Amino acid sequence: MVETRKVQVTGGSTFTVSIPKEWATANDVSAGSTVEFYPEGDSLFMAPANGEERTEGTLDITDLEGEELTRAVMTMYVSGFDIISLESARITTSQRRTIREATQSLVGLEVLEETRDEVVIRDLLDSAELSIHTAVRRMRLISLSMLEDAVDALAELDDDMARDVIQRDDDVDRLWMVVSRIFRSTLRTPKAAEELGLPREECFDYQSAARQLERVADHATKIAHLILEFEKPVPEEVVDALSQLHEDAHAIIDQGMDALLTDDTEEATRLANDTRESVQAIDERARRIDELLRDLDPARAHLLGLIVDSVSRSADYGGNIAETALQKTAPTP
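^ Phosphate uptake regulator PhoU, sequence as received from the core. Prediction below:
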């Protein structure tokens, strides 16, 4: 429900406005309370001043095991809780092991305290020091190197390189969780956006790009798993065609990210439009590779077809990043 108030002048120069009583009561604001103001464009956000900067959350894990428990810990982390208390009448050894593994897979989390019926996890990083910009740049480097190494591993049928690609997916996932956590914190409170020094819309752009990069890493991992199923070398002409497809996909993702990260609006628009046009040529190149696969035995042709699809989809994700860059350059309503 929208409420309106008239701005008044007191003391000849001070502007004042009353706040709704229901809101004040719900947020423990009364006479003498301190509130904080956060300007954002033509808007002014107000929030109660909170001396306690750490947010705490409690979760009953009695019926949670394995992957379900891991996802629960990750969800609490991404939601922005700084202190997470996991409780049960008796926490099993298996649950403790899962909690430790989940904690190690997330940036900044450590087990602070353990008892028979509770495990307390705390985020030891200062959220003000986390950089969504740096996290996305790291995701770009890792995901692109994973895709490149996956294609190279196919050419040599290098199982060790393929397994290394699979392991690096954990690094991208950790960064993706960090980006999601930071982004959700900016939605929850304008103070988080102010500490980051970025408008919330720009945080959304970074989060959108990070999601695409996380998918690129997933497809690189998928390719690496497929490589482990090959027993015979891939024909050279197919390898060459796939390498060229990868080069085009790599360039599209790189150019899309350049468009997103540049502060030059005209340059961003040019790069983003060029990137989107390049994506259209990917489908034709992929079809030509599919024609080469017709002469292979069905099993190998199927595996290679999946790899072609993953590289093509990675290029599409680069196009999505370019689309986000175009939205970022659009005039603000």
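The two ends are 23 Å apart (CA to CA).
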